[in-house]
Fold this sequence. Notes:
The chain is of the alpha/beta class. It has 10 helices and 12 strands.
Amino acid sequence: MICLGIESTAHTFGVGIVRDKGKVLANERDVYKPKSGWGIIPIDAAAHHNKVSREIVKKAMDSAKVKAKDIDIVAYSRGPGLPPCLYAGMNFAKELANEFVVPLVPVNHCVAHIEIGRVTTGLDNPVVVYVSGANTQIISFAEGCYRVFGETMDVGIGNALDKFGRSVGLDFPQAPKIEELARKGKWVELPYVVKGMDLSFSGILTESLKKHKLGEPLENVCYSIQEVFFSMLTEVTERALAHLGKDQVLLTGGVAANKRLQEMLNTMCMERKGKFSVVPREYSGDNGAMIAWNGIIAYKSGQKIKPERASVDSVWRTDMVKIGWI
Ligand code: AMP
Ligand code: MG
């Protein structure tokens, strides 16, 4: 079975083509870039997705060496995400499903991140640290669904880092530049905000900007913001492992690229004699392959939708998704 999956929830328009057992045949994308100094403008991002969609599908089908008749299902990212971007992806997916005359499968973006992570790393029952632009969640499978054991109470960690970077004049994507600057920095005092199992980043962001404004060198603030953000995440992840009696940690989402975050989680896992894996870069940021792979397992468990009944859900929570395949 071959599935073509479409990702369109935010910046990335991605098309993945995946075969049974998670064999990725193609994973193409084009990323909307906001103009300098701006964050994402949803309508502009959706216009970007509409503009590149045909070209990216062609690229993916060429590199997978498949023809329209080889595609068995089309999957799309139903949410969560920015509504204009979700509609752009859904409408295009409906068009393709009708064109190829194949079933359409709606997929949850966050669950897709987890499933591509499980299949590419081989961790079967992990506590998942899902850290992206808009999302920050500690998730694990328990009693029939993926449950969120801890999450941000305000902004996503990637957006918090990007916003800090933008406010001090760095260009998009700001977080990798913060990581670079942080290597030369020293600790300055910042608040540390963990409430139960949940995290809050926005107050720390405000305080970091204040420290910089008052003359603290940028490298020091970059170092310190990373240290607190990532320590907070590591603390909550460790508590999730302890409570659930699990011993695997899977790190995914765009922020998973950060070496300091990887180091902290790895150290914690080693001390507990657990296993730690980072989802390969190609599949940890938003991508079409994860939607295609989740499309296959969801379809095999009986999930599909008639194109005329397709919908989007911009706030579709991870723990509301029916998981028929585990
Ligand atoms: P996603 O939403 O999964 O596509 O992830 C995008 C987010 O990952 C953006 O907020 C990026 O700034 C962030 N990101 C990318 N590289 C890094 C890095 N090296 N360190 C921290 N965050 C990063
Ligand atoms: Mg994502």
